[in-house]
Amino acid sequence: MRAYGFVEFTVRGTDPDQHGRLTVLLGILAVVAGLLLAAGRREWGRMLATMTGLMVLLTAAVDLVQLYRGGPFVNSGLRTATTVGPGLWVIACCGFVVLVAGVVARFTRRPVAGGGEPRR
């Protein structure tokens, strides 16, 4: 973020007033959802992936809106220009992928050992 064209401020996701710690927690939950899906616990994995993906997308959207509306200096009277690095966009894309994985897991069938009817 630049103020008056010459002073630059860096805002990191792990700063105390940002959502980086929440994003890390949601990332851990996304990994747990993937492990549940891989282990055959499809209902729990699917629900956890869907909810985690939605929360990551919501968090990224809130951060993007906040940053593009002026960030931490919105009411300071400073004239600022905000640029968003690639990290927040990567988080948003990953949240979308986790959400899609949760939704797709609902509609895929897993074959039963022994050649019987496929299970959901």
Secondary structure blueprint with pairings:
Blueprint: E1 2-3, E2 7-8, H1 20-38, H2 42-68, E3 80-81, H3 86-107
Antiparallel strand pairs: 1-2, 1-3
Helix pairs in contact: 1-2, 2-3
Structure, described:
With 120 residues, this protein is mostly helical. It has 3 helices and 3 strands. It has helices at 20-38, 42-68, 86-107, and strands at residues 2-3, 7-8, 80-81. A 3-stranded antiparallel β-sheet has the order 2-1-3, with no helix packed on it. A hairpin with a 3-residue loop joins strand 1 (2-3) and strand 2 (7-8). Helix 1 (20-38) runs antiparallel to helix 2 (42-68). The longest helix is centred in the middle third of the chain and has 27 residues, at 42-68. It is elongated. The N and C termini lie far apart (49 Å).
Task: Name a few traits of the molecule.
120 residues, mainly alpha, 3 strands, 5% strand
Q: Ends: how far apart?
A: 49 Å
- Helix/strand/pairing category: mainly alpha
Strand order of the largest sheet: 2-1-3
Helical content stands at 55-70%
The total of beta strands comes to 3
Query: Quick one: biggest sheet?
Result: 3 strands, antiparallel
Low-confidence stretches: none
Overall spatial form:
elongated
Compute the average pLDDT: 81
Strand residue content = 5-15%
Order of helices and strands: EEHHEH
Number of helices: 3
Question: Any idea what the radius of gyration is?
Answer: 20 Å
